[in-house]
Amino acid sequence: MAEDSDQEKTEEPTGKRLDDARKKGQIARSRELNTFAMMIVSAALLLIQGEKIAKGLLEMMKTEFQLSRAVIFDPATIVLHFKQTMIDGLLLIAPFLALMVAVAVVAPLSLGGWIFNWDAISPKLDKMDPIKGIPRLFALNGLIEMLKALLKILLVFGVAIVLYRSFINELLGLGAESLEQSINHSLSIIGKCFLLLSASLVLIAMIDVPYQLWDHHKKLKMTLQEIKDEHKESEGSPEVKGRQRRMQMEMAQNRMMAEVPKADVIVTNPSHYAVALKYDQNSNSAPRLVAKGVDLIAAQIRNAAIGADVPLVASPPLARALYYSTELDREIPQGLYLAVAQVLAYVYQLKAAQKNDWRAPVPPADIKVPDEFKQG
Questions:
Q1: Would you state the pLDDT for residue 130?
Q2: What pLDDT, on a 0 to 100 scale, did the predictor assign at position 1?
């Protein structure tokens, strides 16, 4: 048989394989989708909040940078002044930064969901080895990443040229506007250009997302031998299962043999079959079959019965009928009530004769078994 490495991974991944991969942090991820989400959201926020941010910056420039001579020549005061300026600037852009952090966290969840795994983020020395990293550069994934990078460069460059030609006149006219108008107008142009450039990345994301899903699924495919090994691991090897079955059978047999001394009678074939019956006269239940066996087990039942002084009654048709019609620890079928009653009547007579030193009764010779219960 060929080794696993020589076999083609043609089989779909099992549920266990998918779960194990997810636990190890191996899920489909698209960096291009994350980049697109970050870029498009930041561009939209810039368009929406750009004017407010611009006005805030202008107010800061008017108030914070008009310093008196005393402040300029006082190091302690000027440090506090610039510290407050930095705090005001951060507060101004804090909503923008907070939304970008939220997008950076939520965007990856759109493909693969949330997962955290220390093994996936822990550094691996073999991946830092430049010699071992060279083959990865020329692998299929490396070539695809290079093609995506080239495609992004060409796409962004082409869109940038179109935008430059579209807004060149407005850009040249900014010098003729007032300072406040020029800042607002330039932010508007930057926001529009940024939004259009970001929107162009959707083409890369539309290519990358299906590819990442396909590539992730392909990596998780299995060989026939892997499926067999997984099945063995989850279900247990045939040797282990066989040993467990043998142990269960031995335990069940031991429990069954423990019931033989408590039985009222053993119906035998006389040598091939043995069936142990127990009847509680104080209950309304029918007699129960507490042990049964053929050949070797039948001999063990007979020996245990003899050792416990349990009567044996030879009735081949009835022994076979009881063996095949009744499960362990179950009541006998109604059709065998009369036949078993004859056996029990004999047993009670035998016990009474032994107790009172009477002459032993004659065992029942002609026990009738209905045709539907006859075996062989």
A1: 61
A2: 42
What pLDDT, on the 0 to 100 scale, is given for residue 275?
93
pLDDT in the model for residue 367: 84
User: What span, in angstroms and rounded, lies between the C-alpha atoms of 206 and 204?
Assistant: 5
**Maximal C-alpha separation, the chain:** 138
113: region left, alpha or beta (phi > 0 left; psi from -120 to 50 alpha) = left
CA distance 50 to 42: 11
Q: Which long-range contacts (CB under 8 A, 24 or more apart) does 208-211 make?
A: 208/30, 208/31, 208/32, 208/33, 208/148, 209/30, 209/32, 209/33, 209/111, 211/144
Burial track 238-276 (b if 16+ CB lie within 10 A, e otherwise): eeeeeeeeeeeeeeeeeebbebbeebbbbbbbbeebbbb
The values of phi and psi at residue 57, to 5°, are -65, -40
Task: Give the pLDDT confidence score for residue 277 in this predicted structure.
Answer: 93
Rounded to an integer, what is the distance from CA 50 to the centroid of its chain?
46
β-sheet bridge partners, residue 313: 267
Are 173 and 127 a contacting pair, CB within 8 Å? no
Tell me the two tokens of residue 355. 């107790």
What pLDDT sits at residue 125? 57
The string of DSSP letters for 319-349 reads HHHHHHH--TTEEPPGGGHHHHHHHHHHHHH
- pTM value? 0.47
* E strand segments, 166-285: 265-268, 273-278
CA distances from 216 to 28, 138, 212 (A): 6, 19, 6
Parts of the chain with a pLDDT under 70: 1-7, 64-65, 67-68, 71, 112-140, 234-238, 240, 376
Q: Which amino acid is at 352?
A: A
Contact between residue 27 and residue 193 where contact means Cβ atoms under 8 Å apart: no
